[in-house]
Amino acid sequence: MTPFARLHHTGEPLLLPNAWDHASALALAAEGFPAVATTSLAVAAGAGLPDGASVTRDETLRLALTLGSGPFLLSVDAEGGFSQDPDEVGEFARQLAAVGAVGINLEDGLGAVAGHAAKIAAVKKAAPDLFVNARTDTYWLGEGDERDTLRRLDAYQEAGADCVFVPGMNDPARIATLVRQLHAPLNILYSPTGPPLSRLAGLGVRRVSLGSLLYRRALGAAVETATDIRAGRTPRGGTPTYADVQGLVMQR
Question: Are the beta carbons of 80 and 104 closer than 8 angstroms?
Fold first, then answer.
């Protein structure tokens, strides 16, 4: 079992924060987070491109190259793998592993189950040690069909997924039921309106991702700071110093 895989099998769920650049990843690692993931929304927004449209392959790989040698374990949000061809997805996964990534997140977008399972199998063939987090969007994009969710996750586990991800599922009873039906660890997307980390731990969740939350809050804080200053108010919240940020840059 790889070090990243072991983080999913401790007594507590892995809280996985999602960074969007070198500084944000290093700042999170400095706070003691052993693993950091990327978020596809931030990669796309930073490039002026739409998220989930399979158009940020190069940007995603470039960020992985920047972060792959950092003092943390890196998992990469690769949308649906940037291709419908399983072999091309496998090759992209191999490239991620080559630059230091230890995990990959692949979403099904409610597409064909067999097609997504084939992508997962191709990744495990091309990069056997890469930890595959297989995401289904039955709650994120659909209506939360429990039977379809389990059908999809069963197929993804059978294809070799190391962990399964159901963003948008926040009901404690449904989460607990799903945990009992799976043999792979369950990943839940944290929501400020959903169960807190301690409750998710008690339900048996083994990984809690923050997704784009940190990036969106950072954007919100930037706008709030500018409008506070314009209105004559003193900006609130913590602010790293210039030297703090320079220190992160020097850790390359």
Answer: no
